[in-house]
Protein 1
Amino acid sequence: MNHPHESQELDDVLGRAGDYLMRRTAEYRETPVVMNVRPISTRRGKRLLVGTAAAATLCVTALAGSFIGGTSSGKVDVAKAAWSAIPSAPTDDLIKQTKNNCHITNETLAGYEGATVATFPQDMLDPALIDVRGTTTTAVYFTPSHAVLCVQFADGSVSVNDMPMGPNDGNDGNGWKTPGTITVKIDGNDGTESFMATMIVGYLPDGENWDPYIKVDGIETVAATKSERWGRYIAWIPGEVSGLVAMVNKLTDEGFDLPFGPEEEAPVQLSPETTIETKVSDQGVVTPLGDPATTVSPGD
Amino acid sequence: MDTNSGSGRPGSFDELIDQMRAQLLPVLWSKWGVEVGGDICCEVEEYAWENRDRLLGMSNVLGYLYRVSQSKARRYTRWSKRTTFPSRFPDVVHEDPQLHDMLQMLSALSPDQRTCVLLVHGFGWTYNEVASLLGMKRSDVNNHVHRGMSRLRTDHFDDPLLADRTTQSQNKENIR
């Protein structure tokens, strides 16, 4: 026989599950969701108020999206968790804070090229990608042979990891390489339990309007953050996971899948970048061969 | 059907859309998950627009549109093309482990059990309202809710954290 307080506890968690699904639906549809929730006990009465407040917050946030999220898309920005399936756009303040906290310098990048001294173009000292998921921000820098991932947490602390990543020379026969992954350990917010995460960095196909999505069994589709200028994307998922990167062309509706897994590693490449061609002198000085067409716009 | 009782039969297409988003959408996300449920709802809204004149004359328009949504869902679920209700929820696993466990347990229920349990115990709908919208007998809804809740209670108390609590209390008993 079930005790009344056990049933009430179950109802309470079910109510929170309903709230969670409602919030995620609002994020997925990018519109507020207002639904009928009726009080069925004292506890339900409280939840009704919370639900109503949440719906009101969603409405206000959707209207003020361009101010809150720094985006003009009007995206509902209610994610407060450490991770979210859909990244949000970084604000100018967040970009500045991340750059300051990551503190990536010429010397830092030179270390990944096996040189003690090197001078990189300014573009490479700014994050090429900034991926914001919940309270976690990942800034990605590229050298000719590596991707440097700087993960910033809610409290401002950072963790820097790197993975080999050469130019996209299409040496796997598809015209682009398979995505690279690394597994990192992430400390939870506010001293909560640490967890493993799989970071996925890869190349966009040639042409424009490609959107990368990560598909892993059992979780909803994850949208990656891309930069068409750099021709690359970044996403991360809690846990040691394997799955598919689904490329979808939003104009032509073309698509294809690329598998990834924690065991796969991108091959080390020491040749110059494709997007910014550089040359390395005997003294270890890296200089660009041509100016990029546009300035860096992280998270574009 | 009493599902429209709170807002009445829709008099315009805008009212119909409001009712769909308030009442049909929760059914779809409970049954098919946030993504597939959301996508199906978009398709049903499109269908509703194309057939608005006919639909506005119906007495149980949401019940009818639920049947339409079931037809639309086949395309998403055939050959297991897409994950419907996810079994992993990485965004809440560390923030709210209890909620995460509940979502995982819900994913293990049958779609009809999950829908009925969420609508009745999560959102406070009456059995009649659920039966009317899903096109089921009230006794069928009762069975789905009863079986779903029984399974959740069983899983709930198999939770290792709660088991620890039980073990601890048992140990205290043994010490006495």
Protein 2
Amino acid sequence: MNDEIEMVRQARPEAAPYSREARLAARRALTGPAPRRRRPYGIALAGALAVAAASVVAIGTLVPGTRDAGPGSVSTASVGGQAPVTLPKIAKMSAEEVLGRAADAVTDLHPRDDQFIKVTSETMYGAFQVSLKAENGDQVGENRYLYRTKRAIWLSADGTRDGALKIERLAPRAYPGWPLPKEANEEKPGTEWNKLPTCGRVSDTAYTSLKKLPEDAEGMRAYLYSREHGDRPADAAAWTAVGDLLRETYMPAAQRAALFKAAATIPGVTVTEDAEDAAGRKGIGVGRESAGVREDIVFHPETYELLGERGIVVDEKEAKAPLGSLVASTAQLTVSVEDTAPEVDDPYVRCG
Amino acid sequence: MSSTAPRLDLPAGDPAEPDGPTDAGLIRASLERPEEFSGVFDRYADEIHAYVSRRLGPELGQADDVTAETFLVAFRKRHKYDLTRPDARPWLYGIAGKLISGHRRSETRRLKSLAKAAGGADGPGAALHEEERSAERVSAAAMRPALAAALARLSAAERDLLLLVAWADLTYEETAEALKIPVGTVRSRLHRIRAKLRRHLHLPEEPTA
């Protein structure tokens, strides 16, 4: 019968791959020892991570931790948060210039295959929750807050050894313009350790995998644009890809330089000189607007080393938060090479 | 867990199951031993994820979120599961459907952009696109965006029903179970939905039988 339903059936889109990490995280949420927690919807910058197929890093961003809060974990439960900061001023310096210098400043740690890259960072991302009416699925409410963590990740340089991820959960903050919902405090600050099993598969973000990426700007640009991006504009997705390659990874020098040069060619990328990372370090922001938020990668103003990322509202209506407010902020604190990763006893992580 | 799986106290009448316990058996066991619920996850996580990703698209990990949330909701509501129903798929699809409706805006946006993608003669790919629009490709290339647009014009409830049948391959009975409506209602609603699609797609009216 050649009817409409058959037509719809034949137009069925391809299903997106379910990354092992996301699947494990979902399963663990059911059975894990940690208090059960609704995983917040759509995480601004980190959301992109979940798309990056099978990046081991993804699991970390999604998994909560438990233990004492580190320093600086002040709960700002005030409605509406702090006074908005000023809007980023777009500098005359071109993205090409800044990223070109960043490309020149790259160094390489040259890890051996049997070693681990360790990255420590501090992160703050938006958590979004939508509540639905049970009968008809109508949206009856939305709440938001900023969740914050300190992270340390160990990733096998050649991707053949199990890694580890430590997440310290810090006190949440109010999302600018929104009250702090009670869900934000459902889980107490604390520390969680996760095992990052290789399951016989070398991660795309392992040092040796990254080393296989193009060493020239043109090739790298093609790579950035080749990634699956659904219905997002290609330029926005390419910029997201840049962040994904830098976040909690160690890009080899040649690829890193190529990446910065390629990033400078993405339309819409501009420079702001007044950016700041989650650790309060001032730097140069190179970024692009997406969904009302300017997503910056922050570089050290003199050495052009990568400091972190941040998201600042530039379109109040689209972002549903006050102009100039900070809705995402991270700092990459240390990157080092280690001989071993901590053994994590994690009975809930298994391979497929 | 595979080799040392604890024996389940199945209700009498289920003894000879070649593939292990039924879903209802797992859910029943999970009332006392919550970890048994991961067996339900293992069976259907991939299938639910595929369905959700088809409806919401691959970006921003939304399918990951909604899948995780589906099983969390199911886990919390497992006490209310009707244990006389051996197959938990309809129940899970019902929960996933509600959560997808919560993402209605993104689903509609996705459908609209699919509709736009092949319809416009703008953008650098336009020329190539026009070339492709020859001969029999027309229907494949042009119908899809039109269909996406027609889907976007359905109500969320209509889309939910239609796509459970067309994309999740549920039977009418299973769809009825998922949506908690009588199977007759599924049939009559589908009839209406088909008529709507025909209208939106400018297809000829169905000849009156």
Protein 3
Amino acid sequence: MKFDISYTFDAIPRLLEGAFITIQVAILGFTLSVLLATIITIARTSLRSKILNFIIAFYISFIRGTPILVQIFLIYYVLPVFGLNLGPFTAGILAITLNSAAFVTEILRGGLASVPVGQFEAAKSLGISGFALWRKIILPQTFITSIPPLVNEFTMVLKATALLSLITVVELMRVSQQIYSANYHPVEVLSGTFIIYFLMCFVVSRSSAFLEKRLKVKRA
Amino acid sequence: MKSIFLEIKELNKKFGPINALKNVSLNISQGEVICIIGPSGCGKSTLLRAINWLTPPDSGMVKLEGKIIGSENGKLSIEQSKLLNDFRARMGMVFQQFNVWPHLNVLENVIKAQIVVAKRSREVAEPKAIKILSDVGLKDKIDEWPDNLSGGQKQRLAIARSLAMDPVLMLLDEPTSALDPELVGEVLSVLRNLVNEGMTMLIVTHELGFASKFGDRIVFMDGGEIIEEGAPNIILKSPKTDRLKLFLEKLDITSLKEKH
């Protein structure tokens, strides 16, 4: 069987539609995970509750210690048993969010550790406290130092969305499977899929250098 | 006799087995400049930090203009923590390590608390910030980022940031200790202006020259206690206790060594 590139070209419009869903899932899942991780980080630092910290630590080690595919299946197949029937798209987003949030929490822990205690104290001594202290003073500094690992985590999320094809989310990988199971030309179709994934991740990881440069130039 | 502006009464603070503050009491009148000296670890920084509750005291109390800052038992109700923020906004604090905010430019450093805490509009906060920054000699640096400033400039920025909240009292924790010797002068001259404007100040310092010239009173602390206090010329020239004598001798020796 010889490689016929016309099958690749024919597949591209539909693959791009799938890629559009992939991007949506990745952005939505990652944004929610950053939000969740930020809340966890603030709660962990300011409440200093032993029970809460134990739950957070357990959650993180659970996520990090199990394959993401199992987590996706767990949410998609097991939650309905308890009466919670999420569609594949919602279940997929939820799985991605819960998985990524654990890693983002660890990233933010590192970023936060690089903010000196004096930054909190200076703000408190001026009467800035509570959420304003985090939003105006601490989080901006935490996120600036966390840009490279956060961008890296986003590429991980982008790639992990391919696993959602297994719970019938019609994203890039699923579309690709649909096309080659109809035309029996997996090599050509998967080559196109491969290149689209690569280009998406390439653009994202380049943006890290761009963002870092922009913020550093602003400050240096 | 002037009325008491800041009243510090029987403050105690322990860090594990160490007494950082042991029954410290001090009364300060408006406009007074108090310089706190003593060996490192003697509790002088803890005293400043206990006043604005960055380090809550275990017991004792601090009153500003007759009103209790924080509480008397080391714990805060929700109502009391709200009040604490108002007190803190009225007491400027300057740190040894400057603690300027690196993610905000010079102007924003001075504007931020005005907007967030004092609820001023940007139209009010910005001209005020520019005025204060020119007072401390940083007018041409307003668009600069803190990372690009020298230590002396950072400390002047930190002072400006506090002054923008119209403090009635300034707490300065070794404001010149982290500076290169040639940069100490510019910060001291800003402080001198504050003294001349009649600002009430508590300064933890090793600059005995500054303390004797501008301090109304010098407080010597050791082991978490106030050992001696009084006018600079009396305290520095004729110390009553051996501990202060020893401390001053050590300082003299170090300053002599630095000259050679």
